[in-house]
From TrEMBL:
Record's protein name: Homoserine kinase
GO biological process, one term: threonine biosynthetic process
Purpose: Catalyzes the ATP-dependent phosphorylation of L-homoserine to L-homoserine phosphate.
Name of the top EC class for this enzyme: transferase
GO MF assignments: ATP binding; homoserine kinase activity
Keyword entries, A-Z: Amino-acid biosynthesis, ATP-binding, Cytoplasm, Kinase, Nucleotide-binding, Threonine biosynthesis, Transferase
Annotated localization: Cytoplasm
PANTHER family: HOMOSERINE KINASE, HOMOSERINE/4-DIPHOSPHOCYTIDYL-2-C-METHYL-D-ERYTHRITOL KINASE
Catalyzed reaction equations: L-homoserine + ATP = O-phospho-L-homoserine + ADP + H(+)
UniProt keyword Cell division present: no
Length: 295
């Protein structure tokens, strides 16, 4: 029996649609695996009632199939589904790390990112790896077709999760199919600024680098209260705010001394709009870890 904790993540960070991701300190999924003749899944925790236990429809079950590693899989959800905090990815990442160790498969973490992305494909229709990469590797990650980079960074973040659901499938449906050249140039400038900010542990550059004009406005329209929450976060000292993943969570960067105020301002702004919300204060966190191994 083996247990792995895999963290929530925030994908895109505005300018890095389907490319950038970052591991958060919390929340996290905890996945326990035991060898079995065929895969079965049991889900408890946040939003468990919305998550299929059929292995073909659960990201962890798809990972077990991809690794040819049948197991009884217990998923304790810390990351609520349809949150924009990489819920389906956290289970996929934890299962990949756990089953790779349980069956001694010897895959590298980079190989496990590809396996876990197949789990994501099963639920969202596309194998984007920008949540599973940081959930497995930790840090700030850059995913391309030809590989994945991970760098450690020390930048305070606030993820604010309102009590509304937006499915990744729906949020991918509103992404424009084309963009104007000046918006593309702007996005490249932002993405480079954000990457430099992560390298330098500079919250101002990270926040400025979140600015993006094509995907974010289309997604923001699906999130009640978006403009008011961004404004409140900025007034409280956020250096940048954007949609986390496919939403409805928002992610903000800030200096350490402003983190508490930014978190409160975001929650209050959602509440002023009649929407309950909670904030997670985080830094750029670690990736999936084995927390129990009973041989
Ligand atoms: N192990 C799992 N954990 C969570 N959701 C799962 C899992 N397996 C399948 N799903 C399904 O995946 C969907 C949730 O994934 P979705 O990508 O919409 O949310 P998310 O992972 O929180 O968002 P994002 O990718 O934007 O951060 C739900 O339909 C849920 O039933
Ligand atoms: N890059 C993905 C992350 C959500 O799974 C998206 O924004 O659709």
């Amino acid at each position: 029996m083996l247990t792995v904790r895999a963290p929530a993540t925030s994908a895109n960070l505005g300018s890095g649609f389907d490319v950038f991701g970052v591991a958060l300190d919390r929340p996290a999924d905890v996945v326990t695996v035991e060898r079995a003749d065929e895969t079965t899944i049991e889900v408890t925790g946040a939003g468990a009632q919305y998550i299929p236990e059929n292995p073909a429809k659960n990201t962890a079950g798809v990972v077990a199939r991809e690794l040819d590693a049948p197991a009884h899989i217990r998923i304790d959800k810390g990351v609520r589904p349809s949150s924009g905090l990489g819920s389906s990815a956290a289970s996929a990442a934890a299962a990949a790390v756990a089953l790779n160790a349980l069956y001694d498969r010897g895959n590298t973490n980079e190989e496990l990112v590809r396996v876990a992305a197949e789990g994501e494909a099963a639920v969202s229709g596309e194998a984007h790896a920008d949540n599973v990469a940081p959930s497995i590797l930790g840090g700030f990650t850059v995913v391309r077709d030809d590989g994945v980079l991970s760098i450690n960074a020390d930048v305070p973040l606030v993820a604010c999760l309102p009590e509304i659901a937006v499915s990744t499938r729906d949020a991918r449906g509103v992404v424009p199919r084309s963009a104007e050249m000046d918006d593309i140039v702007h996005t490249v400038g932002s993405a480079a600024t954000l990457t430099a900010g992560m390298q330098r542990d500079d919250p101002m550059l990270v926040g400025r680098g979140m600015d993006e004009r094509v995907v974010t406005p289309a997604r923001a329209a699906l999130i009640d209260g978006y403009d008011a929450v961004c404004e409140a976060a900025s007034e409280a000292g956020a250096t940048g705010v954007t949609v986390s993943g496919a939403g409805p969570a928002l992610i903000a960067a800030c200096y350490p001394e402003r983190q508490r105020a930014v978190a409160s301002a975001m929650v209050e702004a959602f509440e002023d709009d009649g929407i309950d919300a909670r904030a997670y204060r985080s830094t750029v966190g670690r990736g999936a870890e084995i927390i129990e191994n009973e041989g």
